[in-house]
Design goal:
Blueprint: E1 7-13, E2 20-26, E3 35-39, H1 51-60, E4 64-68, H2 85-89, H3 93-107, E5 121-125, H4 127-138, E6 144-148, H5 159-168, E7 170-173, E8 182-185, H6 186-194, H7 201-207, E9 212-217, H8 225-233, E10 240-245, H9 263-280, E11 294-297
Parallel strand pairs: 1-11, 3-4, 3-5, 5-6, 6-9, 9-10
Antiparallel strand pairs: 1-2, 2-4, 7-8
Length: 299
């Protein structure tokens, strides 16, 4: 990945209990360009797997790409390990919506270090895609949306699982990115229950009036392709398109760390770039690629 040939700035967007870590990439940082904000899924962060790669693709295609970690991911950005489990445990969908709102306000403010042009786009993977759908339905300053492997429903828990969760106060599980079992506090589910209508992803997708591309692997075992059909098929605005990619699952064949993109991932990225180019306006890619700066940007 030729990261060094692209402008990269790192910042933390303030305004909440914790900053939102963000990487800003551009192949022409001095030029006004549309901004695309990239959101990770559950357990994801801005350095996970394909996220730096697709962000670089966006930058090279003529966009300013802003890739975030949600504030309560608990991730050590240098190692990728979930090193602050107490932060992860306190995460909720509401917190992630607040985080994304702060980032969108930031990219449209004078504090954003690059000249932005027009309404921003959103790209979200998995639960991050669902959060993007909800956010896009609440705001009128989003120009286009692309969701990858996004669930059409956020309450995915059986009654038995909910009872056990409420009784113990935390949902626990294991991941290779944490040496100890992780927990998700009962407050996560309380937030879902208190905002059931607001977080109805399928209904929010149906109400969108902006172009929405739904990309999904046909063999996704984590989020069934039927949920992608639900997101796309319920649209009333006529601006939604569904692309099912054969032979791949939830991450389009990519893992973490990612050494090279798969054919399925290349297809997902090509569809995404073409969608944003049509919806946000195409900027000729910068051929010089000579800016090698990495900076820290005040938030």
């Amino acid at each position: 990945m030729e990261e060094a040939k692209t402008f990269l700035a790192r910042t933390g967007v303030e305004g909440g209990a914790l900053p939102v870590p963000a990487d800003i990439r551009s192949s022409a940082p001095e030029e006004p360009r549309p901004v695309v904000v990239v959101c990770p899924g559950f357990l994801g962060y801005k350095g996970w797997g394909f996220l730096p790669w697709v962000s670089l693709r966006l930058a090279r295609a003529g966009f300013h790409a802003v890739t975030i970690s949600f504030s309560h991911s608990g991730v050590d950005e240098d190692t990728g390990l979930i090193a602050r489990p107490e932060e992860f445990a306190a995460d909720t969908v509401g917190r992630e919506l607040d985080d994304l709102g702060r980032v969108l306000d930031f990219v449209r403010s004078p504090r954003f270090p690059l000249p932005a042009r027009g309404a921003p786009g959103l790209l979200g993977h998995s639960r991050g895609g669902s959060v993007c759908v909800i956010a896009a339905g609440r705001r009128r300053d989003i120009g286009a949306l692309v969701t990858w492997s996004a669930p059409a429903r956020l309450d995915r828990y059986t009654p038995r699982r909910r009872r056990e969760w409420q009784s113990s106060g935390a949902l626990t599980f294991n991941t290779e990115r944490s040496p100890l079992p992780l927990r998700l506090d009962w407050s996560y589910y309380e937030d879902l229950a208190a905002n059931r209508d607001r977080y109805d992803v399928r209904s929010r997708a149906a109400e969108l009036e902006i172009p929405h591309l739904v990309v999904h692997g046909e063999r996704d075992a984590a989020v069934s392709a039927s949920e992608a059909r639900a997101l796309a098929g319920n649209s009333t605005a006529g601006k939604t398109r569904l692309e099912l990619i054969p032979g791949c699952g939830h991450t389009f064949g990519a893992g973490h760390p990612m050494t090279r993109p798969t054919g399925a991932l290349e297809r997902a990225a090509a569809l995404t770039l073409a969608w944003f180019e049509r919806a946000l306006g195409k900027t000729p890619p910068d051929e010089r690629r000579g800016d090698t700066r990495t900076t820290e940007v005040p938030s």
